[in-house]
């Protein structure tokens, strides 16, 4: 049995109840802190402690190239994937700024760029030189899928080794919204046109072309798309496979996760279809502007923390939500109770 199917424990129900009770004793009308209350309660149960906290955050950005880029489905050239990896390594990307703000541990993993980059602070865990064009061929072989899955698991092991309290995965890969849209369409049995969006900035005509390419691919591979892992193999990307395994692995180790945008949420959906108990360990950072995100979030029964009209990827939306989670913890831990404040509630 693949380790992805190994069991996942539920968050601690005793600490869930204790946190729920405490929220009712804090000096506020019950429920008045809205989602901040449920976030703190959920985290207390995940961490198995009365005082949830998020001081030690681990960020892993998985990058890979996509053969489907040859179909003209992205507003940006494929070379940008490697260029952005260099930018991540140099500290100049949005995710670097947010990681510095949060004093988070940050790493970039090359799971399969077209050509390896020779940089000391880029971890090479390569499944290949980009995926195949999934319009005509399976995106990857089974051995390649295994390497990409292992890349995600290794990242979580590194996070656990430094006692991370939160795992945030991100992705970078030109054309990966095509891959994610195809996977979501296959997983949810929805027409590609219903979830295919602008990605990095396509116009409406280009979006129609992208949806048509995805529809052709789904037709071509239809008879093989019968399990979540087959969908990952035929339509996925190395970075999406890595994220999928990372999410499951984090849940198996009791490490809370914040899921980022559209592509990450599709990885979360695949993870959920592989090992459904993992979803109890997920927070959802934001609702992306990408068209299909709403549908994928619905399928996960997910309530994202933020809606900032972002559509960047690279974990940026997940990182923006971390201060909200941190403040939810502080409110939960530091507010006075009615008894402490000598307030009579009748
Ligand atoms: O996270 C999102 O919701 C999101 C939405 C649109 C685009 N992206 C990012 O843009 C790239 C994919 O867009 P595209 O148009 O090349 O398929 C990839 O590097 C993603 O990180 C990310
Ligand atoms: C510039 C750029 C930065 C990104 N970060 C994540 N996806 C991206 C796509 C592009 C095109």
TrEMBL record:
Annotated active site: 314
EC nos: 2.4.2.21
GO biological process: cobalamin biosynthetic process
Coiled-coil region: none
CDD domains according to UniProt: DMB-PRT_CobT (cd02439)
Keyword Aminoacyl-tRNA synthetase: no
Gene3D superfamilies xrefs: 1.10.1610.10, 3.40.50.10210
GO molecular-function terms, A-Z: nicotinate-nucleotide-dimethylbenzimidazole phosphoribosyltransferase activity
Substrates-to-products reaction catalysed: 5,6-dimethylbenzimidazole + nicotinate beta-D-ribonucleotide = alpha-ribazole 5'-phosphate + nicotinate + H(+)
Pathway of action: Nucleoside biosynthesis; alpha-ribazole biosynthesis; alpha-ribazole from 5,6-dimethylbenzimidazole: step 1/2
Keywords: Cobalamin biosynthesis, Glycosyltransferase, Transferase
Function, as annotated: Catalyzes the synthesis of alpha-ribazole-5'-phosphate from nicotinate mononucleotide (NAMN) and 5,6-dimethylbenzimidazole (DMB).
Family recorded in the similarity comment: Belongs to the CobT family.
Alphabetical list of PANTHER family matching this protein: NICOTINATE-NUCLEOTIDE--DIMETHYLBENZIMIDAZOLE PHOSPHORIBOSYLTRANSFERASE
Protein name per its UniProtKB record: Nicotinate-nucleotide--dimethylbenzimidazole phosphoribosyltransferase
Gene giving rise to this polypeptide: cobT
């Amino acid at each position: 049995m693949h380790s992805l199917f190994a069991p996942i424990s539920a968050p601690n129900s005793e600490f869930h109840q204790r946190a729920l009770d405490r929220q009712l004793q804090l000096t506020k009308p019950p429920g008045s802190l809205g989602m901040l209350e449920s976030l703190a309660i959920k985290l207390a149960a995940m961490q198995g402690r009365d005082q949830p906290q998020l001081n030690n955050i681990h960020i892993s950005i998985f990058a890979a190239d996509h053969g489907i880029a040859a179909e003209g489905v992205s507003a940006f050239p494929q070379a940008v994937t490697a260029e952005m990896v260099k930018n991540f390594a140099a500290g100049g990307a949005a995710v670097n700024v947010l990681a510095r703000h949060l004093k988070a541990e940050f790493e970039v993993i090359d799971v399969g760029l077209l050509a390896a980059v020779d940089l000391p602070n880029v971890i090479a865990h390569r499944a290949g030189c980009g995926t195949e064009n999934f319009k005509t061929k399976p995106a990857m072989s089974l051995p390649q899928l295994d390497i990409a899955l292992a890349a995600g698991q290794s990242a979580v092991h590194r996070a656990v080794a430094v006692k991370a309290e939160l795992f945030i995965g991100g992705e970078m890969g030109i054309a990966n919204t095509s891959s994610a849209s195809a996977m979501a369409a296959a997983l949810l049995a929805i027409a590609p046109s219903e979830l295919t969006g602008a990605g990095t900035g396509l116009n409406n005509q280009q979006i129609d072309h992208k949806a048509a390419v995805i529809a052709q691919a789904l037709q071509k591979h239809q008879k093989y798309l019968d399990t979540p892992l087959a969908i990952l193999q035929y339509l996925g990307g190395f970075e999406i496979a890595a994220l999928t395994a990372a999410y499951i692995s984090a849940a198996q180790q009791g490490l809370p996760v914040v899921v980022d945008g559209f592509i990450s949420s599709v990885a979360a959906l695949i993870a959920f279809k592989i090992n459904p108990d993992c979803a109890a360990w997920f927070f959802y950072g934001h609702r992306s502007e990408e068209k299909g995100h709403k549908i994928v979030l619905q399928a996960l029964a997910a309530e994202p923390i933020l809606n900032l009209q972002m559509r960047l990827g690279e974990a940026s939306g997940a990182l923006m939500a971390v201060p909200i989670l941190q403040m939810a913890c502080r409110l939960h831990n530091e507010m006075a109770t009615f008894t402490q404040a000598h307030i009579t509630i009748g």
